[in-house]
Amino acid sequence: MKMKQLIMAVVLALLTSTVAVPAISAAVVNRADYSLEREVQHELLLLPYYSVFDNLQFRVDGDTVVLMGQVTRPTLKDDAERVVKSIEGVGRVQNDIHVLPVSPIDDQIRIAAFRAIYGEPALNRYAHQAIPPIHIIVENGRITLEGVVANETDKNLAYMKALEVPGVFSVANHLMTEHTS
Amino acid sequence: MRKVKQLFIAMVVAGSAAMHAADLSQTTRVPTLPLLPPSGTVRLVQRELLTLPGYTVFDYLSCKELEDGSVVLTGQVTDPSLKKAAEQAAIAVAGPAKIVNRIEVLPVSARDQQLRSMLYRQIYSDDSMMSYAIRKVSPIHIIVKNGQVTLEGVVDTSVDRMHVESAVQYASGAANTVQLTNHLIATQDTEPLLSSMWRSNEFVQ
């Protein structure tokens, strides 16, 4: 009887070990697949002074990273290039980030648009996210909305709230919804 | 009413600043950042946690590596699915054998939820805190559990730290909040601001 239990225990232990090995292997594979895109995305995300009034985008071509988008601070453009260059596997960085012109009026529009959009009760949950998803790009009185929202209703609501901001000439709605992004 | 609120906060901040200055030589009230950087695995896990869908300023996720190499996930979340998602994200980076999930799921409470929203408005409605509200990564996390409030994350200066605390105390007075714990880290006293949430996640509790 004891021998039978011992054999069962040994068989069970062997079975357990064969199940665990593929799981660990899968994890190792996942770690190896930790892509350059993900690395660049994280580095840009964690840049100090990167705000919802900036929009950083990038494209990876082989070992070349092309940086795009708009920033309010020239230093953010330089910082973005610096952190991406420091990533292992990046050979060259093409920095096409556009620095938005300094304008107190645009600054006022940014703050007003931020309050209008994120202060809207139906959109307030986006403000609560650890990474607020709606970017408000303002250049010479023209607003461009970038980012991802949950649905078309939110996308249109953000657009309407931006239109209500005094002093705005036009609003381009580039927001994507989670289904289309 | 708004002016009275601002005056109250200004008085509390000024009072706190004076007390802080007086006590500075005796005790260090503001937590400091660790000198040692996190390991590669911890950095990768922290990055994954930060970008989890559904991660809000009312949750706080962190992790640390033990001597045996295992990675312990800590923090509090309002949504149970976020706990599971955090574990899966960490496993994808470090492997299943290394992850210990000690994330606490906060109890469902309408009163707590109401308090969270009120505190968020209270903290970020002030013009002086606008620079925190617009950041790509929200730096101040508000954890509410059974009416008790804990602040996590980072701010630029110790004055801002006190300012946030005062705003919470003001709002908490109306909501009869029992206790406030301020774990906010002021980066000013250690080194220039590097990045918001990233720095706070480096803080090993």
Describe this structure in words.
The complex is a heterodimer of chains A (181) and B (205). With 181 residues, chain A is of the alpha/beta class. Chain A is 47% helix and 23% strand. Chain A has helices spanning 2-32, 36-45, 74-85, 104-118, 124-128, 152-163, and strands at 55-61, 64-71, 92-95, 98-99, 134-139, 142-149, 170-173, 176-177. In chain A, strands 1, 2, 3 and 4 form a 4-stranded mixed β-sheet that branches. In chain A, strands 5, 6, 7 and 8 form a 4-stranded mixed β-sheet that branches. Chain A is globular, with a radius of gyration of 24 Å. Residues 10-33 of chain A have low confidence and may be disordered. Chain B is α/β, with parallel strands linked by helices and 205 residues long. In chain B, the strands form 2 sheets. In chain B, strands 1, 2, 3 and 4 form a 4-stranded mixed β-sheet that branches. In chain B, strands 5, 6, 7 and 8 form a 4-stranded mixed β-sheet that branches. In chain B, α3 links the parallel β2 (71-77) and β3. In chain B, α1 crosses α6 (158-175), α2 packs antiparallel against α3 and α4 crosses α6. The longest helix of chain B has 22 residues, at 2-23. The chains are: A alpha/beta (181), B alpha/beta (205). Chain A binds chain B through residues 20, 23-24, 27-28, 30-31, 34, 42, 45-48, 50-54, 110-111, 114, 118, 124, 127-132, and chain B through 44, 47, 50-51, 55-59, 91-97, 117, 120, 124, 130, 133-138, 141, 193-198.
Q: What is the strand content of chain A?
A: 15-25%
Low-confidence stretches of chain B: 16-37, 192-205
The largest sheet of chain A is: 4 strands, mixed
Number of strands of chain A: 8
Instruction: Please state the overall shape of chain B, judged from the principal axes of the Cα atoms.
Output: globular
Largest interface: A-B, 29 and 33 residues
Per DSSP, what share of the residues of chain B sits in E-state strands of 2 or more residues?
Answer: 15-25%
SSE order of chain B in H/E notation? HHEEHEEHHEEHEEH
Indicate the radius of gyration of chain B in whole angstroms: 17 Å
